[in-house]
Request: fold
Amino acid sequence: MCSGDGISSVVQARQAQTYAQIGIAVQAKALQATQVQGEAAVELLEVAAELAKQLGQGLQFDARA
Reply:
């Protein structure tokens, strides 16, 4: 039964390798999604800042100028 143990070991090793590759792929997708979300958040903040500037134009009067 030693050959059966060897085959089992090979199958387990390949299965472990496959699980590791799947884990890496999942982590890569998660990182990519996080980067996309971060870029969208930055863009949203930039647009909000620009909008705030435009809305605030002409609303303040500086009598010292």
The radius of gyration is 28 Å. Residues 2-56 form the longest helix (55 residues).
